[in-house]
Structure formats: C-alpha cells, structure tokens
Design a protein that fits this description.
This is ABC transporter permease subunit. Keywords: Coiled coil, Membrane, Transmembrane, Transmembrane helix. Pfam families: ABC2_membrane_2. Helix 2 packs parallel to helix 10, helix 7 packs parallel to helix 11 and helix 11 packs antiparallel against helix 12. This protein folds into three domains: 282 residues, no CATH class; 53 residues; 51 residues. The protein is mainly alpha-helical. Helix content is 70%, strand content 4%. The longest helix is centred in the middle third of the chain and has 34 residues.
C-alpha cells in the first residue's frame, strides 16, 4: 500500500498539471497581496473620515422621509449618533496621532455603553450583539495590554485568514478539479489501466492509493504556499500578534418580527466571543483540510464515472465553478434550503466561524460541526460509490 502511494505521488510530481497548479496559485496569491496593499490606503483615518461623513449625510437625508416607521427612525437616529461619535474620534486621532491608545479604547467603550443603553431588543438584536462584540473586543485589548492594530496596516497573524478565504471560496475547488479530474479517467484514456491491474495489488488498494496521494499533494502544496505567504507578509509588512483578539461565534435565529431585521434573521444576544488569531488560523487549516478531502473525493467520483479525461475535467470544472459562483458570488434565494447540504458551502472556514455565512445565504443552521458532518458524508459517499464503480468496471476489462 505504501509503495502504491509513493508511486502515485511520484507520478503526480512529474505531472505538468502540478506545476501549472502551483503557478496559478502563486499568481493568484500575489494578486491578492497587491489588492490587500492597495486597499489599505482606503483605511487611513483621513479616508475613513471622508466615508463616514458621506454616510452621515445620506442618513440625515433618509431621516427626513415621512414614510419611515418609528422603529426605523429610531434606528437611523442611533446610527447617526454613533457616526457622529466615530467622526469626532477620527478627527481627534488625526489631530493627535500620538495620543495614548488606552485612552482611545476607554472612550470607545464609554460610547458603546451609552449606545447599548439606548438600544432595545425589539429594535435590532443584530446591532445589539454587534455592540456586545465590540465591547468584548475593546475590553480584551485593555485587560491584556494589547495595542489595537491599525486598520491601514497589514499583519501576518490577523490577515493571513483573508488569504485562506480568497483561496478556499473559488480557487481551491477549481484547482483541485484541474489537478485531480483525470486521476482515474486518464488510466482509461491512455489505456494504462490494464498494466496497472497486472500489479500484485488489489484494486481497492490501487484506488485508495490514488485517493490518498492526491490529498497529500494538494494539502502539502496549499499549506506550503500559505506558509510562504505568511512569511512574506511578516517580512514586508508586519508580523502581528498571535494572541490578537478576533470576534467569532455570533449565532442567529429566524426573527419573530420580520420587518425589523435584514433577511428576517436576528442575532442571539451574548453569543459572540473572543478567540486568539492563532486559534482562528488553526481552525481555518482544519476546515480547509476536511474540504480538500471532500473535494478530492467528489472529483474522483466524477473521474470514475467518465472514463474520458477531457469529459471528466470539463464536468468537474463546470460543476464546481457553478456551485461556487451561486454560493459566494451570486447567491440565489430559492436555493437557501439546498446550501446547507452542499459541501462547497463550507469551503470558507472564516465565514462559518464568524457567522458571516448565515447573513449571506439567509440560513441560520450553519456551524462548524454541521460543516464537518456534511463534508464527511460527501467524502464517504463519493469514495464508496466511485470505489464500487472502479472495481466493477475493472472486471469487464
């Protein structure tokens, strides 16, 4: 078995597709880093001040509308008050850039406490929980003597998850389809299957070795590139703090009053909590590994059904590109009940951990445990069926 895996890994290493896969990954990561760097200029205090002043003008114009309900009017008033305070703090920050950060944190906490007191649970639990989360974040910084990151700077520990998200959402499934789609089909296309079966190894071991070798190659390649990216960010920008707080875990439920909530979803008060940046990275890597296993299993399944390499590649790319597109780029409302059972939905660990997926796909059941279960079910079913097909077809040859 081990020798079979070694042979398959050697075949993959000599496969030109691996180097195309690697080159594409490098180019895409470089593109993302350039985008992150250029975007950071729009997060400087002066740029933020311009944006917040523009939003405040729009809210003031909206508040004058006579068609607004009392609840909506109150919500806009709270938003305007909050913006006024943020604009004041930004102006102070620009005027006194060397001011003690602890004083700034204390002012933010005081403003949030006042804002929280004005909010009503019947108004918008999403805003209330956002307040709670920010209060946890600022208090954690103060209690642990951690200076807050500058929004216009890039930090390795805090921003590497942005690279994970970029890779996992659209790129990883497509690259896996490109690299692994002919894992079985090519043996039939180039008539090497007969020679393969003459080896004193069972068909199940041959199939399993192909499966494991592809998982190893994809995982090692992706993790190596992510590690190199982490080092590059550390050297060029900032290393960051592995213990830096990240707000995660916000839970959502279907709203009882549909008129008050975005997507008819309300937040569970007190559900958000803090984890360290290094823990978020490990959780992302774990979810990424499970997703790689699932994606390879699915691609192998299609490769086993269609014995032509080009057909297998076309179908794999088509399916994974389409599903990723309608999940992360153009989500469709009528598929809300289908999204939770698609393995591609769980490709981005950060969105699940932070609860962002709930709001974007309008479903409250997304969670890490559910994602792991769904992906493992897909992996087992795809592997079992494709293994059966492979063994049965071999008998006919």
């Amino acid at each position: 078995m081990i020798n079979c895996i070694k042979n398959e890994i050697i075949k993959l290493i000599h496969n030109k597709k691996l180097y195309i896969f690697l080159l594409a990954l490098v180019l895409l990561i470089v593109f993302k880093l350039i985008y992150m760097y250029s975007s950071s200029f729009g997060k400087t205090p002066s740029e933020q001040l311009k944006k917040k002043e523009s939003v405040l003008i729009e809210l003031k114009a909206e508040a004058k509308s006579e068609s607004l309900s009392k609840e909506k009017k109150k919500d806009i008033d709270i938003q305007m008050k909050r913006l006024d305070e943020e604009i004041k703090m930004l102006k102070d920050n620009i005027a006194n850039p060397d001011e003690n950060w602890k004083n700034t944190m204390k002012n933010k906490i005081e403003n949030l406490e006042n804002e929280k007191g004005e909010l009503s649970e019947n108004l918008d639990s999403v805003e209330i929980e956002k307040c709670n989360a920010e209060l946890q974040y600022y208090n954690y910084l103060l209690d642990n003597d951690i200076e807050p990151n500058k929004e216009y700077k890039i930090y390795a520990f805090e921003d590497i998850t942005g690279i994970f998200d970029f890779i996992n959402k659209m790129i990883l499934p497509i690259l896996i389809a490109f690299l692994c789609s002919d894992i079985i089909a090519s043996e039939y296309t180039f008539s090497t299957i007969k020679a393969l079966l003459t080896k004193p190894v069972s068909r199940r071991k041959i199939f399993c070795s192909k499966f494991l070798s592809n998982i190893c190659i994809v995982t090692i390649t992706i993790c190596l590139m992510e590690f190199i990216t982490f080092i590059i960010i550390s050297l060029i920008f900032n290393f960051g703090n592995p213990s830096y707080p990240i707000i995660v875990g916000t839970k959502y439920v279907k709203a009882s009053n549909n008129n008050l909530y975005i997507n008819n979803i309300s937040a569970v008060i007190g559900s958000s909590y803090i984890i360290s940046a290094w823990k978020l990275i490990l959780l992302n890597l774990f979810m990424q590994f499970i997703f790689i296993i699932t994606c390879v299993s699915f691609v192998m399944f299609i490769s086993t059904i269609f014995t032509n390499s080009i057909t297998s590649l076309t179908i794999n790319l088509g399916i994974l590109m389409l599903i990723s597109l309608i999940t992360y780029i153009l989500p469709l409302k009528f598929l809300n009940k289908l999204y939770p059972i698609l393995f591609t939905t769980y490709s981005c660990g950060t969105d699940i951990i932070k609860g962002n997926l709930v709001m974007s796909l309008n479903s409250t059941i997304f969670s890490i445990p559910l994602g792991i279960v769904i992906m493992l079910i897909w992996s087992i079913v795809c592997y079992f069926i494709s293994s059966k097909i492979f063994n049965k077809r071999d008998v006919l040859i």
